[in-house]
Amino acid sequence: MTERTQPTAAVDVERLVKRYPKGRTNAVDGISFAVGRGETFGLLGPNGAGKTTTIGILTTMVLPTSGRATVAGIDVAADPIGVKQRIGVVPQRANVDRSLRVNEILTYHAAYHGVPRRERSARARELLGELGLEKRSKEKLDLFSGGLQQRVMVARALMHEPDVLFLDEPTNNLDPQSRLFLWERIRALRDRGVTIVLSTHDMEEADRLCDRIAIMDHGRILALDTPEALKGLVPGGTMLDLRARVAEGIALAPALRDASSSSPEDRVLAALEQLPGVTGVERQDGRPPEDRELQASAYRLYADGQDAGTLLASAAQAVIGEQAELLDLRLARPSLEDLFIHLTGSNLRS
Amino acid sequence: MSVPDLTTQRHELRPRSRASAALTAIVAIVSRDVLVTRREIASLLVQTLAQPLFFLFIFGKVLSSIGTTSPRFSVILLPGIVAFTVFLAPLQALSIDLGRDLSFTREIDDRLLAPLPITMVAVEKVLLAAARGLVAGGFVFPLAYWILGSGYQVRTDEIGALIGIMALTALLGAAIGLLLGTIFPITHLSLIFSIVITPLIFTGCLYYPWGSLGVIRWFQVLTLFNPLTYASEGMRYAMVPFQKGAAESLAMGWVLLVLCVSLVLSLGSGVKFFWGRVLS
Q: Which domain holds residue A295?
């Protein structure tokens, strides 16, 4: 933990560009960022955003077209061997050595990195225990699930005590249990002071694990900050989620309904839009089945310059004023998903 | 779950020079390969020795016993069989291994991420495959002694040349294996073997001495474009006891020159393609 205050960056990237020989655009398009020692740094973006290429460059397996990248102060293009001595890599796809048994995968990895013989087996035992693999250390990997292979790769990457650990979409394709387990392990590593760079297209993962997140799309970094600060970038200061029932039975009298051609839902919407400070109201689509049965509608309200309490009260009044029944009203916290949609106009999984 | 404090036993890996880090890594990679080979030795030997065994039995023993070939044929054949084994075993092992590795298993990644130049990873693969080819080739001798009986005649005054040619042939086979394994995806390899390997074997003077091809002049010229011809002829020079009136083998100078040049070219281009496959 004390290492976090050290000034030298663990990873430093400056105007980094990668264009593949057959690519029509830059896979990585002039990105810059720095990762502090002991920090957990996330690259968040959809497939094709350039995350894996960025990690490829930092782990010396992809050659940069231009720009500069250093790991632990060492230039990745000029001194790949120096960099390889200091990094651990958990790739997106399983790449374990299937000719070896689990404990050998770890001890040979350590041997490649010059860990003295007597330390190798002790460390392997320790890491296998830590990752819940001690009972399977003599097995080959053929029958291992994706989650178990992932654990072996995490243990392997830690065998030579890397300064920086790179995880490329570590929980992609893992079952929920393995995912939670890996998250727990990653947090434990962070607490131990290991610098971690991870890529993900999972908002929740980035939010839960990372100290700072760079949001990437089309090879560029769109935003870079702590998860909380990033969420603050979502416009519309305060957001409210609101559900109201505007069923026929409790709606307006028939005479009055004739006078206005709009539906009760639209009138609720209009009433909410007229509240002071409200900048926009959206009907939330895809309501759950129980809402359809109740004939309830969901709305999201965006407001500026109003404190949350006043807004909550006036929104409740507006709904009641339209003769609708208020079912649910709460402050919505902007998610990274909201930010991503705000920044790119599309959601992450599309 | 409690987290053991691994930092307490932190060793100093960092200040090592690049050269010593690379040396440590390559030694470890070799020892990994030796371990894996040792575990698979039985199946490896069966794979590589089945073909020479049947060839020796049918062509060296059966055909001469029923009078289809002269007894002299087995003497000419044996060097070709050794060359064939020493050349093909590393070629197939390395190309299939690498093709599979680069196409989907990516088992090689861990070695590529070890602190050594990636050229050394490729060269180590070539050396180890060649060594395995040499071992397989060595096993052909006792096999031949057992099958051929009195038909087994090998001169013993050129052991140095024999080992040298065998080593060059094994290295060449491994280097061509590296080239094929890096150029072609695993899905195309069996097709490539039929297109490349079959003609290479049948025009490589494995089953006939080059000197006697004078009667089919165009074919004799054609075989000169096959490096395997030089391997077989070199082996023949080092193994076949001198007999008056027998066809001359290719001059040793040419044999060594062509083998060395082919080795350098195939290894050089193999390493270059390897770079292209593992670095983007």
A: 238-333
